[in-house]
Amino acid sequence: MTPRLSHIVAGAILAIGVVIGALIGIAHVAQKISGKAEASAKIEEKKADAHADAAKVSDKQVEDIKTKLDIAKANLDRLTSERDALLRKLKQPPSPGPVALPPLPA
């Protein structure tokens, strides 16, 4: 091998070595970045799960409040109708004379 040819071969081997080293370095950096991204994704997933759990609790509370509201509305309607009935009785003219009470059971 002539010195020129040996220089070319050595340069080619060196260039291939540099390319392989660069590829290995890039792969290493990519693994680190990928690992960080996966860790970040897991953290965000946990946050999303916690948010979803909180939303479920809030939904349950809203359902409970709606149920209580419906019960309160029903009670209000019942009491309003009882009040109206009592007011109608008060507006009736009083009965004339004494009122006969039924005898007490012995």
The number of distinct β-strands equals 0
Based on CA atoms alone, the radius of gyration comes out at 45 Å
User: What is the average per-residue confidence, as pLDDT, rounded to a whole number?
Assistant: 88
Helices, by number, come to 1
Structural class: mainly alpha
Region (Disordered): 87-106
Biased composition (Pro residues): 93-106
Transmembrane segments: 6-30
Keywords: Membrane, Transmembrane, Transmembrane helix
Protein described:
By secondary structure, the chain is mainly alpha-helical. 84% of the residues lie in helices and 0% in strands. The chain has one helix and no strands. The protein has one helix at residues 3-91. The chain is rod-shaped and about 145 Å long. The model has no long low-confidence stretch (mean pLDDT 88). Residues 93-106 have a biased composition (Pro residues). Keywords: Membrane, Transmembrane, Transmembrane helix. The chain crosses the membrane at residues 6-30. Residues 87-106 are annotated as: Disordered.
Quick structural overview:
With 106 residues, the protein is mostly helical. The chain has one helix and no strands.
Give the SSE map:
Blueprint: H1 3-91
Which terms summarize this structure?
transmembrane, rod-shaped, single chain, 106 residues, membrane, transmembrane helix, 84% helix, mainly alpha
